[in-house]
Amino acid sequence: MVPLHLYLPAKRVKEQLQAVADLAPAELSVAIRGQERFLGGLGAQAESLMADQPETRSEPLLIDGALAGHLLWRAPPETEAQVMPWIRHLGTLFNTMMELEYARRAVAREALESLREIALLERASTLLNRSLRPREVADALLAELATRTPRITWSAVFLYDFAQQEHTLLTTLGTDAAPWFQEFAASPFFQGMVTGEVTGIINDIASHALCTHADPRFRATIALPLEAHQERVGLLVLAADHKEAFTSADLKRTTTLASIATTALRNAQMFVAETNMFRAFIGMIASAIDAKSPYTAGHCRRVPEIARMLTEAACADVNPPFHDFHFSEDDWETLEIATYLHDCGKVVTPEWVMDKPTKLTTNMDRIALLELRIQLIMFQERLRGEGEESQRQEFWKNQLDFLKACNLGNEFISPETEARLRGLAKITWHDLQERPHSLINAWEMDNLLIRRGTLNAEERTIIEDHVVHTINMLKEIPFPPRLRHVVDYAGGHHECLNGRGYPHKLTDASLSIPARIVAIADIFEALTAPDRPYRSPYTLSKALDIMQRMAMDGHIDPDLFQLFLRAGIYRRYAETHLKPDQIDAVDPTRYLAG
Length: 594
Fold this sequence. Notes:
By secondary structure, this protein is α+β, with helices and mostly antiparallel strands. It folds into 4 domains: 4-108, no CATH class; 134-274, 2-Layer Sandwich (Beta-Lactamase), CATH 3.30.450; 294-350 and 458-590, Hypothetical protein af1432; 367-438, no CATH class. 51% of the residues lie in helices and 12% in strands. It contains 20 helices and 11 strands. The protein has helices spanning 4-7, 10-20, 80-128, 134-148, 177-184, 188-195, 248-292, 299-316, 329-340, 351-354, 367-384, 389-408, 415-425, 442-448, 457-475, 486-491, 513-528, 540-552, 558-566, 569-577; strands at residues 29-33, 38-42, 57-63, 66-74, 154-161, 166-173, 200-202, 220-228, 231-240, 428-430, 436-438. The strands form 3 sheets. Strands 6-5-9-8-7 form a 5-stranded antiparallel sheet, with helices on both faces. It has a 4-stranded antiparallel sheet with strand order 2-1-4-3. A two-stranded antiparallel ribbon has the order 10-11. It is elongated, with a radius of gyration of 35 Å.
């Protein structure tokens, strides 16, 4: 059997059973069991229910078609027909929860495996080639040929574009070589080189059948197709400004060097293709993370943009503390990957936590249950003839409006609000068996008393754990040495200079400038994002007010925040990505240190 507890934790079972306990038929006992493990139940006999008991009924719990456990139940024989629909709905609920968790884990596994495979390919390419840039390989080839064959006046490497099925000019050597080769590439003579009709040494171009016009510049050529593993890589063309310029020794030497360079060039081509695919895959993963929640769509694509602008500003700043800060090409690639994947751990964060729009939301917003209970209380009061009808309706309308306001999480819960909530919790309603129940149960009270936002302590821990998952997932990828800082940059975006961040409570001594940049980019995007479920998007001024307080508190780097303002990054980003009503008047001198 599949281990049920991995896909249906006991805590989640108990939460769901508690949520429906009020609606359970009388004298019903229910148990959820996996491999000899009791995960939760309802009723006095719940823990004693076993699948092999004759009087116990069983509904299978399946994961990907495989049996994972049982929903066991027992009820008086005369009530079984009434209980069955309720049991089947409960079974559907738990099976759906397991399917969602199974799918989430499958996506995470596939994403991690794909990232690992592509990173291994990239590292292998790095080890096999000294240079992994086609232009550098081609430049080195032309420089070597110029040294060994001084009769060459101009030279060029054309790279074959498999997608367009044409040769494009990659690099040239010689005075005014680039425009001349561009013009030459349009001639029938060059097309003969491409097709193989013209190859080897041509010491008198003007006399060749494919030469349709006299060219005073190119008088002699060597043309060699560049092929590796029976695939066209490109074309090498050497040219001289006089006839009879090349010998068979030149051709042999050129052929030898070209064959060595062709393999390196092909490896470089493959590396570029793999890098592009890796970057495209990173972009796809970022899109998948954003698509997981409609409320964070675009976050993983907008954070890299802010981080790049701030890094460019830091590199260009000639004043302390950034006057010695600079970025290599590998550093830029590291930052790009880190920013796109800084939230990759969210693929295992449950949607019901990540998208929690109100305090009482689980798989539904339980404010609806509170409204239903209030309607039931009003009905029971009406039957007992308590109070004047319109007054009672107005009273309960006010209580419901109050509960709905508390549920939103927009306002701080004051002592007066808490006292009112606890007073409402003392009001009871009665079920069909005349058993009393509180209007607000313990779980609902704990969540309604959340001081700020919609997440309780446990849910906030789950959210914060996405950084741990990000770090662990990225550590599984064998990044090459040039990308060794990806994990540090991506995993530090919730750390603080004052040591109060997470997950490792690092301090300023342990946080690199790029990691601090990613943190600022992440915060600014989150504050101004138009798609959060628990609040309206902040205006520029409000977002900067919050960030200034964070800088003063040691939450973010104050020097980088100052640079963020001086360079006008907040304004450039806003003009592209924010709604017009978010872009209010901002006086940056308010925030700049004197």
